[in-house]
């Protein structure tokens, strides 16, 4: 109808407030606050609560890359408190520089707060020494001119055996003998790149028994060293000659033991290993605190010495843990739990044929012992690069037996081998490959930016879907997490 006027529309509020002058509309709406709580705490807020989807038990590692929820995880807590793992162990894989040691350090720090002592058996860079010092632990330095670790020194085990009686004492003494025999055989294997023969191991075992009798309590001779073991073989006592099968001919005995004597002599002061394992132990390991064996003083060019140092630390440390548990079982010491870290696993495995068996014997820890284990290496290729099919199969078993596998960025060529031991979806494979992409060049800053996969990890437990997460370090952790100190002014 002509001439009619339209009545003004009544103003209505929008989702951002009242429009118009003085209305008070906002340009940005804050997201609704979120809280996390148990079902008992938030049951009255239904239906506004949502499940997190990841376990809230264990060391807080970081945030889930999909949901943003907090991810708590460590092999000890997931085994003891949730039953998610069949055994308290994990295997960590990933390209260098993406944070493998960082996530293990986070677990070690968190577990120390739970009363589980971290034990670092061979820190090559070092990655863990500053952390262990910061939490009041013991750092033992090894290497040429730095410190020695006598492979015949039972450490706390002998003192523990003296406090025990009956079967418990006999079991611990047998364990001491077995570990020392394994360690001497392993050092011979590293020097020869081949294990000693069955006859040579039998001779070593008999010689160690004679050595124990010579250095028994009250003899005043103290702890034996490798030089004393060589002297026993030279002395040709009847107990050693009988297992050498020399048929009563001393000349035949000298011929049988010549190669073994030469290998053991090479382990002494003038040998390739510089006497690091043939001299008295510089500093004994303590069982009531975190411990780190710092072997960063050994140059990367000394491959054999590095492998020998790592294997010696593992053997010595596992023996100390066995002694601690024997005392706890007898009620003489409180029960302690440990988190063992075996970093740079590939260095030992590739040092010589037969070393896979040595590591295999060390890592088969009974889950009733209250010990969590973390094995760290770069890729499955490290395990498949071993010379024999038998060794490759055993090395793959380290991953297959692990309670959980944590992967950082990995190259595409790694996926077929990894899929043989870890069940991965296509989306998870793409995620790991994307994280391995090299860093881009930051034109504004004039330097490389951080790799896209830095701090990102995928947690796999059996056939369950993987949990992708990102680890951010706190200010306190950054102070003990600097692995580039040599580049600072």
UniProtKB/TrEMBL annotation:
SUPFAM superfamilies: P-loop containing nucleoside triphosphate hydrolases. Residues 1-13 have a biased composition (Basic and acidic residues). InterPro entries: P-loop_NTPase (IPR027417), T4SS_component (IPR051162). It comes from the Bacteria. Residues 1-24 are annotated as: Disordered. This is ATP/GTP-binding protein. It comes from Streptomyces luteolifulvus. The lineage of its organism: Bacteria, Bacillati, Actinomycetota, Actinomycetes, Kitasatosporales.
């Amino acid at each position: 109808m002509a001439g009619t006027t339209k009545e003004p529309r009544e103003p209505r509020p929008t989702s951002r407030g009242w429009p118009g002058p003085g209305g008070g509309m906002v340009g940005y709406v804050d997201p609704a606050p979120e809280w996390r709580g148990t079902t008992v705490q938030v049951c009255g807020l239904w239906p506004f609560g949502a499940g997190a989807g990841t376990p809230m038990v264990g060391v807080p590692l970081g945030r889930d890359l999909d949901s943003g929820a907090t991810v708590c995880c460590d092999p000890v807590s997931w085994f003891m408190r949730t039953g998610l793992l069949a055994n308290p162990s994990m295997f960590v894989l990933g390209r260098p520089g993406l944070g493998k040691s960082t996530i293990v350090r986070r677990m070690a720090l968190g577990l120390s707060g739970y009363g589980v002592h971290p034990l670092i058996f061979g820190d090559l860079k070092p990655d863990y020494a500053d952390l262990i010092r910061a939490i009041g632990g013991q750092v033992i330095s090894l290497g040429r001119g730095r410190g020695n670790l006598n492979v015949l020194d039972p450490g706390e085990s002998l003192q523990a055996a003296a406090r025990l009686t009956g079967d418990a004492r006999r079991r611990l003494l047998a364990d001491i003998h077995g570990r020392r025999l394994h360690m001497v055989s392993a050092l011979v294997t590293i020097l020869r790149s081949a294990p000693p023969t069955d006859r040579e191991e039998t001779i070593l075992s008999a010689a160690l028994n004679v050595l124990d009798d010579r250095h028994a309590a009250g003899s005043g001779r103290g702890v034996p060293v490798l030089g004393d073991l060589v002297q026993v073989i030279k002395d040709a006592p009847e107990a050693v000659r009988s297992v050498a099968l020399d048929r009563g001919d001393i000349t035949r005995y000298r011929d049988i033991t010549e190669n073994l004597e030469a290998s053991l002599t090479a382990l002494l002061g003038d040998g390739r290993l510089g006497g690091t394992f043939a001299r008295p132990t510089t500093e004994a390991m303590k069982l009531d605190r975190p411990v780190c064996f710092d072997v960063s003083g050994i140059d990367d060019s000394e491959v054999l010495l590095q492998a020998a140092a790592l294997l010696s630390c593992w053997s010595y440390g596992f023996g100390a843990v066995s002694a601690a548990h024997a005392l706890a079982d007898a009620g003489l010491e409180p029960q302690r739990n440990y988190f063992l870290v075996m970093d740079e696993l590939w260095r030992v495995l590739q040092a010589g044929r037969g070393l896979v068996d040595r590591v295999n014997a060390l890592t088969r820890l009974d889950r009733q012992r209250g010990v969590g284990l973390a094995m760290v290496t770069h890729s499955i290729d490290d395990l498949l690069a071993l010379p024999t099919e038998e060794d490759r199969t055993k090395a793959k078993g380290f991953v297959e037996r692990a309670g959980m596998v944590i992967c950082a960025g990995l190259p595409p060529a790694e996926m077929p081998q990894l899929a043989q031991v870890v069940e991965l979806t296509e989306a998870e494979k793409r995620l790991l490959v994307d994280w391995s992409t090299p860093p881009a060049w930051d034109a504004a800053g004039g330097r490389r930016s951080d790799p896209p996969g830095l701090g990102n990890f995928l947690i796999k437990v059996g056939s369950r879907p993987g949990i992708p997460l990102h680890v951010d370090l706190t200010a306190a952790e950054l102070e003990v997490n600097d692995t580039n100190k040599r580049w600072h002014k």
